[in-house]
Amino acid sequence: MNIESRSLVRAIRGPVILITVGVLFAFDTMSEIRFSQTWPVLLIVIGLLSLAGGGRPRRERNSIDPGGPQ
Length: 70
Fold this sequence. Notes:
67% helix, single chain, mainly alpha
């Protein structure tokens, strides 16, 4: 995964979580499905976004830290 796609996932993470919460509360209001039954969906969405975004890129061990002492 390249840096551009990681930054895209980071940029959409907040809106996707808010949309998911809104949809779950809409289900709670408009149907027989309650939020207490659907909150695990929120955890699944957060987990999928974390997997899609990957971790932070690792620095090479032999590289010089530009912010550290030289």
